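pasting for ref
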Amino acid sequence: MLNEIPQRSAMRLTRRGRASLIAMGVLVAAAAAVAVPLLLPDDGGVKKSQALTVPEGWRAGQVYEALDKAFGVPAGTTKKAVPKAGLKLPGDAGGNPEGYLFPATYPLDDKSTPAGLLSSMVNTANKKLNGSQVTAGADRDTVNPYQTLTIASIVEAEAATKEDMGKMARVIYNRLDRGMPLQMDSTIKFGLNRATLTTTTTTTKGTKGTSAENPYNTYVRMGLPPTPIANPGAEAMKAAISPPQGDWLYFVTVKPGDTRFTADFDEQQKNVAESNKLRTSGKPSSA
């Protein structure tokens, strides 16, 4: 979500209701990540194996937990395997695979290990990011591949639909180009390790709200957060690599399927007012 709080107004300009649907999405994703039977041909007929599906937008912690359960190992085992897994991460990542655990379905067999599966995820992410398509992007002079992945992770967390992803990425680039804070609720949630959060302009003991003290608070800190905030899928990566041209600076989801992008602050205020009216009337206002 994007909260725009310019000096001339303290109005909360955001996609109301996003939190509840995110929570619903997590429940659906969790079910999809359970190891499921996968039939593979074998010399003697049919051999039973398994596969693990990692949903788009999961954080590294969720992936670790799913791997622990899939392999039947104690909680925390996969996370502990990261430093010794030999993951092919860029120097910018500092050994943190957040963003590089590419969402896909990975086969499991008796030779599979948590470290091996993590390596497959990182190698897949690198294939999606590296090469001419990144350097050919419209913003090749302003971001490197790691920053591109960070943008893709925000797009994955913020966009209500695949159709909105390109515009969402362009909003991020436009705000960076203009020296505007990103003001994304999704980055604050990540910094607080929260799945949902009602963002306000005040704090409770310094832990909530737009003034929360952490490096992922894009309300008070300029530029991109220090790391990706989730593991984006192919569509979000594509949006971050080659966003459409546009002057959009603001967005708000007025109701499901109706996310409005604009460069005009006054128009954004009207859209937010409509969103708030629907929300207070008890009707779902955003995705």
